[in-house]
Design brief:
This protein has helices spanning about 5-15, 35-50, 65-80, 100-115, 130-140, 145-150, 165-175, 195-210, 215-240, 250-255, 255-270, 280-290, and strands at about 25-30, 50-60, 85-90, 120-125, 155, 160, 245-250, 300, 305-310, 315-320. A hairpin with a 2-residue loop joins strand 9 (about 305-310) and strand 10 (about 315-320). The protein has twelve helices and ten strands.
Length: about 325
C-alpha cells in the first residue's frame, strides 16, 4: 500500500472498530475522489471487523447523463468488491436553492436507505477542504459558534472520517488503487457559493496569506465545536429546569448571553417554529424583550410563534399564521 490510501484506511479504521460484528453500514458515493477513496478504504477495513458495507449513490436528476453516472458508480463499486450497491433517484426542490435542495434530498434518501437496510451508520466522504469551505461560508453569513464549528466527525448516524484528510490525498489514493474519478459539472459553476469559495476565495487566501489556510480553518472549526458543545451542555441544564412556554425574564437576564440565546432559540422551536427558520435578527428581537424592555409589543415569528413579555415573563405561544 502507498501513503495516501494508508492514511485514509487509518482514518476509517477506528470508526469501524467501534461497531459490532455483523453491523451493516452505508457508504455514500458520488463517483468523485473523496467518496471513492472512502469506499475503497472501508471495503478493506470492514472485513477485519466483520462489518458489511453497502454502497449508495444518489441520482439527483439535475443534469443530463445523471442516470448513466449513477450506473457507472454502481459498476465501479461492484468491481471494487461491494456485494450490494443501491442507486436511488431523488427529486430536488429548488425552493431554497439548488445546493440546499440537493443536500436535503440526498440526506433524506440516505436516511431512507439506512432504515430499509437496517444500517447502523452512514459514512460520508467530506474532507478537510470541505470543512474549510463550510467555515468560510459560515463566516460570510455571519453565523454563530455552532455554524462556524463546521461539520462534526460523528453526528447521529452519520460519520465523516476524512475531515483530517485533504482532497489531494483522496485524489492520490484513487490513483493508487486505479479508480477512475468523476468530476461533477456543478463543481465548475461559480454561481454556487461553495464552488466560488473552493475555486476563487481559498486559492487567493493561500496566495496572499500563505499555505495552510484550509488546515487552519479546519482547526478553528474543531476548537469552536468544543466551545459550542460546552455551551450547549450548560444551556441544556437550564432548559431542562425551565417551562419553555413561560420564561422568567429576570432570571434570563442574569445568564451569559451565549447561554440565554440558546435557551431562547430552544423555546422558540419548542413553540413550533420550523427547524432552521430562526435568524439572528429574530433572536435579537426576543433578546430585547428580556434585556432591553421598554414596553415593546409582541413579536410574531415563523411558524406562527408569538413571543410577548407579560408581567415579567416571556410568553411563547403558537398561533395560526
Amino acid at each position: 500500500m502507498t501513503d495516501a490510501i494508508v492514511a485514509i484506511r487509518n482514518a476509517v479504521k477506528p470508526h469501524l472498530a467501534r461497531l459490532e460484528a455483523g453491523d451493516i453500514v452505508l457508504v455514500a458515493v458520488s463517483g468523485g475522489a473523496d467518496s471513492l477513496a472512502l469506499a475503497a478504504a472501508i471495503l478493506k477495513e470492514a472485513k477485519a471487523c466483520a462489518i458489511t458495507p453497502i454502497g449508495v449513490t444518489i441520482d439527483h436528476q439535475l443534469q443530463s447523463g445523471s442516470a448513466a453516472q449513477a450506473e457507472k458508480v454502481e459498476k465501479q463499486l461492484k468491481e471494487m468488491g461491494y456485494g450490494k450497491v443501491i442507486c436511488k433517484k431523488v427529486v430536488v426542490s429548488t425552493k431554497s436553492g439548488i445546493e440546499a435542495g440537493a443536500r436535503d434530498a440526498r440526506y433524506q434518501a440516505l436516511g431512507e436507505c439506512a432504515s430499509q437496510e437496517k444500517a447502523t451508520k452512514i459514512f460520508l466522504g467530506h474532507t478537510r477542504d470541505d470543512q474549510a469551505e463550510t467555515v468560510l461560508l459560515g463566516l460570510a453569513r455571519g453565523s454563530g459558534t455552532r455554524s462556524l464549528s463546521g461539520m462534526a466527525v460523528e453526528n447521529g448516524i452519520y460519520i465523516r472520517p476524512l475531515l483530517q484528510i485533504t482532497r489531494a490525498e483522496t485524489v492520490a489514493a484513487c490513483k493508487e488503487v486505479g479508480v477512475e474519478l468523476w468530476n461533477d459539472p456543478h463543481n465548475g459553476k461559480t454561481e454556487f457559493s461553495r464552488v466560488k469559495v473552493r475555486t476563487e476565495i481559498l486559492p487567493v487566501m493561500e496566495e496572499k496569506l500563505g499555505p495552510g489556510i484550509a488546515a487552519a480553518l479546519a482547526r478553528s472549526a474543531s476548537i469552536l465545536r468544543d466551545d459550542a458543545d460546552a455551551l450547549d451542555e450548560i444551556a441544556q441544564i437550564e432548559i431542562s429546569r425551565s417551562d419553555l412556554t413561560s420564561l422568567d425574564c429576570e432570571h434570563l437576564s442574569t445568564l451569559a448571553r451565549a447561554i440565554r440565546s440558546r435557551i431562547l432559540r430552544a423555546a422558540i422551536y419548542a413553540a413550533g417554529a420550523p427547524s432552521g427558520s430562526i435568524t439572528a435578527d429574530h433572536l435579537a428581537g426576543v433578546e430585547a424583550l428580556v434585556t432591553s424592555w421598554h414596553g415593546q409589543g409582541a413579536l410574531h415569528l415563523p411558524g406562527g410563534v408569538k413571543v410577548e413579555r407579560i408581567s415579567g415573563r416571556l410568553s411563547l405561544l403558537a398561533q395560526p399564521e
